[in-house]
């Protein structure tokens, strides 16, 4: 994490269509991931956020359009070279049984290692720094599967940090984390972007954390990008209603001046019969 890339990588999706077997999910996505910035992908469940991340990371092949890394089709590039530049943390990753935290974090170094050439010093430094950043050093020698959900999530984050890629794609990295740890993680991601020039694309579900920390917000709905730009222009009541069907006011925090959405309590949502029976019974 100590290296600062000379020129941030450029990741683009052009007219992307992608999905699973006969099911099309993404439909005509054009996206340039802003270089050296933290971009947050928002959208309701099933809107295609993970599918987009997988397609950009070439885990999923698009049925039409293309993904380019620095102007070159990512599918034509060497796998190791892509792994040295782009790291992805998918949703709900699982580690082999018995693997220790240090071993898991060390897996982040695989793209940098070759049988005949391995920089053990460089690897050890990257692993140490990544574990310190993600605050997992204290349980470095414990099995990943014996940790709590939040501790495990931090180990995966350490692994992706140890990979030291210029581009980092994270799918819901804050799942299972306490609010304080979520905030710490987002501040770390902001620092990676602003101080180290890393390019980050992160799926989040917490609208207020997204608005508070993102440089760029991308809102998806039904496999398409509906809005993209700085929170100031994207995070509006009208867009929240259109994309999430959420009635909310967007206000400014009086202390930080950050944008916040406050759901409206309209009282119009019908109470299902069974709950109403319990409530009044
Ligand atoms: N492996 C799969 N095979 C078939 N359909 C899938 C697969 N993975 C996802 N889908 C479908 O693709 C659509 C988009 O899913 P995706 O996981 O990309 O959405 P998402 O926006 O990330 O959702 P969430 O916020 O719930 O994680 C959904 O309808 C989902 O059911």
Which terms summarize this structure?
12 strands, 25% strand, binds adenosine-5'-triphosphate, alpha/beta, 281 residues, 4-stranded antiparallel beta sheet, globular
Structural notes for this entry:
The chain has 281 residues and is of the alpha/beta class. The chain has a single domain, classed as Rossmann fold (3-Layer(aba) Sandwich). It has ten helices and twelve strands. The strands form three sheets. It has a six-stranded mixed sheet, with helices on both faces. The chain has a four-stranded antiparallel sheet with strand order 2-1-4-5, covered by helices on one side. A hairpin with a 2-residue loop joins β4 and β5. α3 runs parallel beside α5 and α4 packs antiparallel against α5. The chain is globular. Bound molecules: adenosine-5'-triphosphate. The site of adenosine-5'-triphosphate has 11 residues, from β2 and α1. Adenosine-5'-triphosphate binds next to β2 and α1. It holds the Pfam family ABC_tran. It is a peripheral membrane protein.
What is the 3D form?
Answer: globular
Please give the order of strands in the largest beta sheet: 6-7-8-3-9-10
**Count of beta strands:** 12
CATH superfamily placement: P-loop containing nucleotide triphosphate hydrolases
- First-last Cα distance: 59 Å
Order of helices and strands: EEEHEEHEHHHEHEHEEHHEEH
Radius of gyration: 20 Å
- How many DSSP helices? 10
In the predicted model, the low-confidence regions spanning at least 5 consecutive residues are none
User: What is the makeup of the main sheet?
Assistant: 6 strands, mixed
CATH topology: Rossmann fold
The bound ligands are:
adenosine-5'-triphosphate
The proportion of residues forming helix, as a percent range, comes to 25-40%
CATH class: Alpha Beta
Family: Belongs to the ABC transporter superfamily.
Main location: membrane
Membrane topology: Peripheral membrane protein
Protein name: Iron complex transport system ATP-binding protein
């Amino acid at each position: 994490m100590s290296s600062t890339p000379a020129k941030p990588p450029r990741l683009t999706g052009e007219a992307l269509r992608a999905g699973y077997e006969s099911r099309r999910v993404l439909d005509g996505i054009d996206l340039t991931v802003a270089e050296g910035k933290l971009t947050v992908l928002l959208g309701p469940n099933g809107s295609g956020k993970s599918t987009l991340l997988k397609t950009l990371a070439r885990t999923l092949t698009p049925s039409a359009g293309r993904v380019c890394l620095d102007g070159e089709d990512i599918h034509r590039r060497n796998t190791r070279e892509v792994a040295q530049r782009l790291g992805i943390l998918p949703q709900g990753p699982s580690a082999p049984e018995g693997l220790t935290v240090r071993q898991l974090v060390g897996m982040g170094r695989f793209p940098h290692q070759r049988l005949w050439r391995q920089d053990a010093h460089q690897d050890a430094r990257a692993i140490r720094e990544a574990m310190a950043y993600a605050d997992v050093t204290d349980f470095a020698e414990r099995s990943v599967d014996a940790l709590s959900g939040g501790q495990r999530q931090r180990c995966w984050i350490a692994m992706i940090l140890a990979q030291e890629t210029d581009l980092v794609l994270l799918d819901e990295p804050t799942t299972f984390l306490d609010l304080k740890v979520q905030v710490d993680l987002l501040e770390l991601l902001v620092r990676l972007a602003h101080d180290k020039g890393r390019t980050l694309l992160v799926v989040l579900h917490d609208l207020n954390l997204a608005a508070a920390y993102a440089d760029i917000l991308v809102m998806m709905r039904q496999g398409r990008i509906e809005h993209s730009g700085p929170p100031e222009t994207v995070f509006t009541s009208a867009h929240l209603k259109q994309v999430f069907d959420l009635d909310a006011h967007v206000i400014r925090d009086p202390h930080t001046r950050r944008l916040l959405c406050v759901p409206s309590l309209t009282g119009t949502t019908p109470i299902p019969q069974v709950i109403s029976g319990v409530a009044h019974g």
